[in-house]
Amino acid sequence: MQGLILINKPSGITSFGAVSRIKRAAAEKRVGHTGTLDPMATGVLPIFLGRATCLSSYLLDGDKTYIATIKLGVTTDSCDITGNILSQCDVTVSKGEVSKVLENFIGEIRQTPPMFSALKKDGVRLYELARKGIEVEIPERTVKIHSISLLSDLNEQNELVIETTVSKGTYIRSLCRDIGISLGVGATLTSLCRTAVSGFKIEDCVSLDTITDENVCDYILSEETAVSHLREITVTENQARRFSNGGQLSYERLKICDFIENELFRVKFKDLFLGLGFADNERKQLGIKCIINQYK
Question: How many angstroms separate the CA atoms of 40 and 85, rounded?
Answer without folding.
Answer: 17
